Amino acid sequence: ELVSCVGWTTADELYSCSDDHQVMKWNPLTSETTRVVKLPDDFYPLDLHWFPRSVGGKKQPHSETFVLTSSDGRFHLISKLGRVERSVEAHCGAVLGGRWNYEGTALVTVGEDGQVKIWSKSGMLRSTLAQQGSPVYSVAWGPDSDRVLFTSGKQLVIKPLQPNAKVLQWKAHDGLILKTDWNPVNDLILSAGEDCKYKVWDSFGRALYSSQPHGHPITSLAWAPDGQLFAVGSFNTLRLCDRAGWSYCLEKPSTGSILGIGWCSDGTQLAGACGNGHVLFAHVVEQRWEWKNLEITLVKRRTMKVHNVMDDAVDSLEFRDRVIKASLACGYLVVSTSLQCYVFSTKNWNTPLIFDLKEGTVSLILQAERHFLLVDGGGLYLYSYEGRLLSSPKYPGLRTDTLNTQTVSLSNDTLAVKDKADEKVIYIFEALSGKPLGDGKPLTHKTEIVEIALDQKGLTSERKIAFIDKNRDLYITSVKRFGKEQKIVKIGTMVQSVAWNDISNILCGLQDTHLTVWYYPNAVYVDRDLLPRTLHQKDASEFSRNPQIVSFVGNQVTLRRADGSLVHLSISPYPGILHGHVRAARWADALRLCRFVKDQTLWACLAAMAVANRDMATAEIAYAATGEIDKVQYINSIKELPSKESRMAHMLLFSGNTQEAEALLLQTGLVYQAIQLNINLYNWDRALELAVKHKTHVDTVLAYRQKFLEDFGKKETNKRFLQYAEGLEVDWTKIKAKIEMEIARERERAAGSAAGRS
């Protein structure tokens, strides 16, 4: 009889239920099949779902049971050995679907009577969430188990568990919807139905992909656990698709309709429940990884082929167990199998470093130049390429099962993780110790964050993080935070995807219909006016809708279009070379490069880099080349200042850091200069406050204030100024003499410190 449902307990054990009333256990490794239990003859199973094995790395006590729904209106809690623990009358008519939430604290069932019901894990009714006029064929939990997605004829409905919360409902198909699934990692929704199409949606109900009509209704679909792939089943058809919707491959097995698809926990294989009584097993192979001149393909479950396209050399890598995850970057290939982790150097494929894994099922590998990150059910682990465990960062509410490349970012000294519980928060850790960075407080934004990325080069103190929020605005900020509120600066709008370059701190992003490259994003902290001049934009309308950046290596950006094809774009190599010169403080070479290229964008980058590194001579030449004469004049005036502290303060002022400039002057005892700085900026209240506090130059502040008001023909209205001006005569001769004395004192001090140094 037809097989109606399948479910994996471990990566090598599958249970299936059929209309012949049997529950069978399969081991695809040994090809063993055993009957677990024979159910009563009036029992026709419809859906099976195992209790979650672990939550946050902790094994669940009830993980040896599964829920089985049947056509007689009941659901059954059955142990792994086949004992029926409990049977519950749930619906009038067949119970068409049953699903545990991710924590295992609740069960949702849907039925032919149009009801959606929530049950406790022991099978007690908690609430009836919805009452539809038509049968509900499929149900899925939201990523945080606080919403339920279910079908209603041609409509999809997302209903929160809280009463009176807004319900989201939209028409999804032209025919009856038969199956739906919602992935917790990428937050995307799948639906399929009798209109013979499958579709991908985001959690707001926006269509991201719609397939061409198939020859038959689509009877099953399911996300792979990591959210990178999904499988679609129809009559004699099994299709493997990318998360964006396009198809990797199409198989035509003689199985009848595939009524259910189950992925194993490591995402390497799936099982299908087939209408002709077969159980189908399929393994994902032919995955590819590319980096520079290397192309690596998983040809079999335990075999990889390495192809060097420069000299056409081919190597074969054999593994003891099946390959689960792999990553190729920074001169290393990191491969995790079901029990071990292999680290290959791209210079030598013969002697990998091998170490055992604790948990086994690795869900994510991220690489930086000096180390790599493994994410599994137990937590986050940072290893050196010599196989030494460096750290294991933790934070409250850590859920490793929802982490992906958009929500975790790694650099040589820093690890950033977006919080799942509060999506406005990013936790930032020191890579080597696993401790929170700076003052230990996470980075908090005003709206939900969608994607994060750390820059890869430069000093730890200058490490920057770029992130995209829900409104698709791109922000940049420093990760080093000690008490003071760090400036989060917006540098782009309508940004879909971002990536940092691997060898220099250049950022690229897909912005509306353009590919934008920020050659020096740090310019926002140095000279905001320069940022638009350090950008490079290319028209990206030819890449169709929703392209994604795959990598940004050297001066090549790789994009994946919505139809799955890869597009390689080259950007100018000169900004990368300029970054290298500046990192090594080769300012003469940097100037020579800019003069050779004769590009305004490059000159603007050099101007910002020179100001950031306090190299005034280079900054002056670069600003002159960009035609910013006012800034050249200001830099000249800075160079003529007597003391080093004054020059530093005015450089900070040039970059817009007023408070830091003032603090530096006060710290070094240059009180008059701090007062004069506020006068020049028309911060009158602050200038008077400093003068009164330090009991000096009150008359100077009042004189400049009086002159300012006279120039504009205004009268004094500020009470504090009126109070201190009472009975005070402004004598400009005296004031000028005092100012000259201050300047002379500063010159003497500068000369004294210079003599001391020599």
Automatic annotation (TrEMBL):
<dbReference type="InterPro" id="IPR011041">
    <property type="entry name" value="Quinoprot_gluc/sorb_DH_b-prop"/>
</dbReference>
<dbReference type="GO" id="GO:0060271">
    <property type="term" value="P:cilium assembly"/>
</dbReference>
<dbReference type="InterPro" id="IPR056456">
    <property type="entry name" value="Beta-prop_IFT80_2nd"/>
</dbReference>
<feature type="domain" description="IFT80/172/WDR35 TPR">
    <location>
        <begin position="602"/>
        <end position="748"/>
    </location>
</feature>
<feature type="domain" description="IFT80 second beta-propeller">
    <location>
        <begin position="286"/>
        <end position="574"/>
    </location>
</feature>
<keyword id="KW-0853">WD repeat</keyword>
<keyword id="KW-0966">Cell projection</keyword>
<dbReference type="GO" id="GO:0005813">
    <property type="term" value="C:centrosome"/>
</dbReference>
<dbReference type="InterPro" id="IPR056157">
    <property type="entry name" value="TPR_IFT80_172_dom"/>
</dbReference>
<protein>
    <submittedName>
        <fullName>IFT80 protein</fullName>
    </submittedName>
</protein>
<feature type="repeat" description="WD">
    <location>
        <begin position="88"/>
        <end position="120"/>
    </location>
</feature>
<dbReference type="Pfam" id="PF23335">
    <property type="entry name" value="Beta-prop_IFT80_2nd"/>
</dbReference>
<keyword id="KW-0969">Cilium</keyword>
<dbReference type="InterPro" id="IPR036322">
    <property type="entry name" value="WD40_repeat_dom_sf"/>
</dbReference>
<dbReference type="InterPro" id="IPR015943">
    <property type="entry name" value="WD40/YVTN_repeat-like_dom_sf"/>
</dbReference>
<dbReference type="InterPro" id="IPR001680">
    <property type="entry name" value="WD40_rpt"/>
</dbReference>
<dbReference type="GO" id="GO:0005929">
    <property type="term" value="C:cilium"/>
</dbReference>
<feature type="repeat" description="WD">
    <location>
        <begin position="170"/>
        <end position="202"/>
    </location>
</feature>
<dbReference type="Pfam" id="PF23387">
    <property type="entry name" value="TPR_IFT80_172"/>
</dbReference>
<dbReference type="Pfam" id="PF00400">
    <property type="entry name" value="WD40"/>
</dbReference>
<dbReference type="GO" id="GO:0030992">
    <property type="term" value="C:intraciliary transport particle B"/>
</dbReference>
